[in-house]
Amino acid sequence: MSTDSQSRLGAFRDEIDPFVFLGGALVTILAIGYIAARPDAAAKTLTNANNFLWSELGWIFLWAMFFAVAFCVWLLIGPWGKIKFGGPNTEPEFSYFSFLAMLFSAGLSTGLVFYGPAEALFHYSSGPPFFGAEAQSAAIVPDAVQYTMLHWGISPWSAYLVVGITIAYYVHRKGAPIKPSTVFAPFIGVENLDKKWVKPLDLLMVVISVGGVAVSLGFVVTQFLAGLSYNYGVEFGNLGTILVTVGLTVGFTASAALGVKRGIRRVSTFNMYLFAFLLAVAFLFGPTAFLLSTGTEALGGYVNDFVSMSLYTNAANASEWVGAWTVFYWAWWFSFAPMIGIFITRICRGRTIRQVVFAGLVGTTAASFPWFIVMGGSSLWVQTRGSLDLLSIVFEQGREVAAFPLFETLMPFGGLFAVAYLVLVLTFLITTVDSTTLSLAMFTTDGSENPSTANRVTWGGLVGLLSSLLLISGGLAALKDFVVLLGFPIAFVIGLCIIGLVIEFEQLHPVLLTERYEGDAPEDEDQQTVAGLLSDRRPTWMGGADD
């Protein structure tokens, strides 16, 4: 072994947190190995656990997400939005377009291509009980798009932003390490984040993150293989599946190894251009007038019914529909929130809270809403007009094939655009997985912003290996249920983030109280905690300072 290789290996050993890195990898391998070995038994157990959560505790998910949205809207319009991540003279590392492109590509991208043409079609088929319109009727068409907007709009981004802003604030203003347990900094202080009793949260995030990335990779491999099979009649066995997964793993691992500037930023920018091109083509060659009218009605309904839809449980009847869709999505977004929050922290230095929230709530929604209106609306149009029974195709072959017959029906040279769509699937996967792989590498080094290439490659390789195992064994659905199940405790983490930030920001810029705190500015007290603050403010009869 060369001296240079020994030096890199030594740097890799020195940077990792053994408990989080090795423990997280071991627990993840054991959990996913069990699911792969016994997919049916694991799926049954996890499905029963999730069904219990969704039916009995679904209201917790709904309230947690609603409060996250309300808090982010307040950050966007209120005075706390001017707080900057970093010192007053800190300049942003990336342009705003690059920042937005990376944020969008990391957060929702694989879901957009997987669910874009299909989700509204499912809502049209089942009829969301919130509206009361008959399933597969003309009246349910805009409602189907409207509910898709709820699931892919400002709500998931609010979960990401609450966690991301909490971590970013303490990293860039207080010198905390970039890792999920930094969300506890408002309560325990930055100086206690390296305590052993804090590390289990980071270990849990490793398990959730690797599982979530493996599911995303598995979904996209499935979609890619289904596209090749549908368009060209190419069938893949286990070996072919492994080879495709390995190829994708090499792609996102190389991007993550190149780093944010040379890898993730460039692929994300390419994604945005290709995404915009396909969206424009589908809009122009599709049923444009139908899309404009349906989209307008759906958007109006989304704005008007947002609060009611966000808190709708269908309490008078069975809650299966809400559990299978809204609560499932909220649990899924929660499980990804710490990982995406870490990535937000990495790229937001030099920006204000308002700029970050605007990019997350407004910028990304301005990209995702047109996509779901055009792709979902086009699917509904061909279905309701009888030009293509897309619903039967989706039920028979899976939602992953929905886009390909849709392109063939709507567009000239549909095969060419199907190829472009497959490219978009792959590049979106690369940006999603490389950003999350980078996040994994960062918080398994105890918070380093620039983890070694060896660290990133290790996690990329592990994700690819586990994804191949799941695809071959049929355990992908069970792993998805496992990741969603672990999203439940993140709902409480989001609540803690909101409480901690409210108290912290109230010290910097009092809004909720009518008078400023006395003494030195709390922002200069790096180790001020919520518990300490409340103790300081207690009246004398409670043992605290005199009010």
- Please report the number of helical segments: 22
Sheet with most strands: none
Structural class: mainly alpha
Succession of helices and strands:
HHHHHHHHHHHHHHHHHHHHHH
Number of strands: 0
- The low-confidence runs, each spanning 5 or more residues with pLDDT under 50, are 517-527, 537-547
Helicity level = over 70%
**Mean pLDDT over the residues:** 82
**Termini separation:** 67 Å
What percentage of the residues does DSSP assign to strands (E)?
A: under 5%
Radius of gyration: 23 Å
Describe the fold and architecture.
The protein has 547 residues and is mainly alpha-helical. 75% of the residues lie in helices and 0% in strands. Helix 11 packs across helix 14. The longest helix is centred in the middle third of the chain and has 48 residues.
Helix/strand layout:
Layout: H1 3-15, H2 18-37, H3 39-56, H4 58-77, H5 96-107, H6 109-115, H7 119-126, H8 140-152, H9 154-174, H10 185-188, H11 199-232, H12 238-285, H13 288-310, H14 320-347, H15 353-385, H16 390-397, H17 403-410, H18 414-443, H19 453-473, H20 476-485, H21 487-508, H22 530-537
Helix pairs in contact: 2-3, 2-11, 2-19, 3-20, 4-9, 4-14, 4-15, 4-21, 5-12, 5-14, 5-15, 5-18, 6-18, 7-8, 7-15, 8-13, 8-15, 9-14, 9-15, 9-21, 11-12, 11-14, 11-18, 11-19, 11-20, 12-15, 12-18, 12-19, 13-15, 14-18, 14-21, 15-17, 17-18, 18-19
